[in-house]
Amino acid sequence: MPEATQVSPTADPADAAVAVALRGLTKSFGDVVAVDGVDLDIYDGEFLTLLGPSGSGKTTVLRMIAGFELPSGGQIELSGRDVTKLAPFERDVNTVFQDYALFPHMSVLQNVEYGLRVKKVAKGERRQRALEALASVQLAGFEQRKPSQMSGGQRQRVALARALVNRPSVLLLDEPLGALDLKLREQMQVELKELQRQVGITFIFVTHDQEEALTMSDRIAVFNQGRIEQVGTPADVYERPTTSFVAGFVGTSNLLQGSAAEQVLGSPGIFSVRPEKIRIVDVQDQAEQGQHSVSGVVRDVVYVGAATRFVVDLDVGGYLVALQQNVQASSTDVMQMRGRDVRLVWSRDHEFRVADAT
Amino acid sequence: MTAVQDAPVPSRAMGLSTWLYRRPRARLAALLAAPVLWLALAYFGALFLLLMTSFYTVDDFTSLPVRAFSLDNYQTIFSNPAYVKVILRTVAIAASVTVVAALLGTPMAFFIAKVVPQRWRGLMVALVVTPLWASYLVKVYAWKTMLQPDTGVVAWLLNPFGLSGPGYGVVAVTITLTYLWLPFMILPVYAGLERLPDSMLDASADLGARTGRTLRSVVLPLVYPSIVAGSVFTFSLSLGDYITVQIVGSKTQMLGSVVYGSYTTDLPFAAAMATVPIVIMVVYLAIVRRTGALDSL
């Protein structure tokens, strides 16, 4: 990963002002409860990601902050002001849509100028701000194009410029990278993060892609079935997930529970350990001080280029996934591991107990 | 052990589909033979005969066409103020019908496409189309009854307000034609709005536009081609109508009714009269094309 993707919180949450406050936010569609009592403080200048599977309520929360949906209950505050019942055009937030929602009958420049024209900003200033916004997303020279004449990645940038030109206090992004191919997506992740640092606007980013969330966010709120399961920095959420859902959704679910947990770790409960923290050693080798180990049979070997994933059926029941970097091993070497008896070893520091939330 | 025998043998046992698959031209011919034949003979043939006949004259004694080229019929039409007036009246009625249908149809289409929940949309579209299942004549006579001066439903509704109904005439024709052709406006506009993503409306509001601004700057420009498509239907159908005007139009004459009244006695003149709305439609389509409304259909 390039340097720019390294995440460091831009502000200490404790003394930053609250940009968006959600209080007991609820939304039902008929009998379906999409959002079920969400409480969340989002700080000024923060890059916060709402992460969760489809149908977990993350997009509905974003749409309520934007004003596209009226909450069934609860409250939304923007910079301390209650906006729960305000229309979208009365809120100081802008949105980048999943399908970009560019106006096809307007040129790129007209699209970007739209918000300023609606707010009756004088023509000279309007033009200048729009050109600046387009330049900031590397689209200088594309002003007269129609959206249909641009690639997916370029449209995405236009949508970004169209939102940012209004200098909102909060920018909402609804899975904006979902339609891009992998290479472009990774590049945009870096650029988005960079852009957010430059403009210093609070970004609320919705995605179902855990890697994207880990790469870009200052904090992540993990959604499941309309509720927030955990809020924390990427490191918190990845290394110290508090529920089995978070452990499974952010990274690979690698759980030891019931009697297996008791035999291996010596205490009951649900434990998780990340695949890359597990080492595969000879079945005769014993664990050292401060380590736990368990024996098993390699059921499956998945070669993924830089690394190999081993699925190991444990002798005590259940299975664990171990990820090994292919430093020396070739693909033929690792394939021969299938069916072997092995021992899995990991440091006690890397195992964590999770709550059985769902 | 037997030798492998299932190698493909193209000359034998080849199905029709396979044969067509290898011959793109034959495929195209099979697809287009019937429609091209129909278009060439029935459609263009009839149009051509109509155009030819409009240049003939009629034998005053036998009322039979005389096949000699002349511009007499067109000269009669354009030198007689009564006929020019009929043309202008017909265009005015067709234009009014189109404008009223657009004003009524666009909000209805918007309601069906963007307000009604998804599961009710099919039913709403069916309801819009329902009048098309009823006989044209029955609907026109229904309006004749409703528009009856003094005793009709319309008069009965308006009388308490000190107003009288429009009676029979140009207004009655416009009302009835608007009723008849409204579905032809609603359906294309509905289809156009259906294609317009909801996120487009959200985006406009998100950028600060109130409802009126969103309608003016985003919705109307994007459904404009659909409204134009609908107007081609309402305009041309009204332009050619000859029955409604006879039933609710009192003594009003339109192009269609003039054609209807003269084709037994002077076929070439009727043909010339019938060519007028065709030419008007061609001009209308040319103007519409220039606005670029047909490009995005």
Characterise the protein shown here.
The complex is a heterodimer of chains A (358) and B (297). By secondary structure, chain A is of the alpha+beta class. Chain A has helices spanning 58-66, 108-118, 123-136, 152-164, 182-199, 210-216, 234-239, 244-249, 258-265, 331-335, and strands spanning 18-29, 32-43, 47-51, 73-78, 81-82, 93-96, 170-174, 202-207, 219-224, 227-232, 255-257, 270-273, 279-282, 291-303, 307-314, 319-325, 341-347, 351-354. Chain A has a six-stranded mixed beta sheet, sandwiched between helices. In chain A, a hairpin with a 3-residue loop joins strand 14 (291-303) and strand 15. Mean pLDDT of chain A is 89; it is low at 1-11. In chain B, 71% of the residues lie in helices and 1% in strands. In chain B, strands 1-2 form a two-stranded antiparallel sheet. In chain B, helix 3 (72-79) packs across helix 4 (81-115), helix 4 packs across helix 10 (211-240) and helix 9 (198-206) crosses helix 10 (211-240). The longest helix of chain B is centred in the first third of the chain and has 35 residues, at 81-115. Chain B starts with 15 loop residues before the first helix and ends in a 7-residue tail after the last helix. The model of chain B has no long low-confidence stretch (mean pLDDT 90).
Could you outline the blueprint of secondary structure elements for this entry?
The complex is a heterodimer of chains A (358) and B (297).
Chain A: E1 18-29, E2 32-43, E3 47-51, H1 58-66, E4 73-78, E5 81-82, E6 93-96, H2 108-118, H3 123-136, H4 152-164, E7 170-174, H5 182-199, E8 202-207, H6 210-216, E9 219-224, E10 227-232, H7 234-239, H8 244-249, E11 255-257, H9 258-265, E12 270-273, E13 279-282, E14 291-303, E15 307-314, E16 319-325, H10 331-335, E17 341-347, E18 351-354
Parallel strand pairs in A: 3-8, 3-9, 6-7, 7-8
Antiparallel strand pairs in A: 1-2, 1-4, 4-5, 9-10, 11-12, 12-18, 13-17, 14-15, 14-17, 15-16
Helix pairs in contact in A: 2-3, 2-4, 3-4
Chain B: H1 16-21, H2 24-53, E1 57-58, E2 65-66, H3 72-79, H4 81-115, H5 118-129, H6 136-146, H7 153-158, H8 170-195, H9 198-206, H10 211-240, H11 244-248, H12 255-262, H13 267-290
Antiparallel strand pairs in B: 1-2
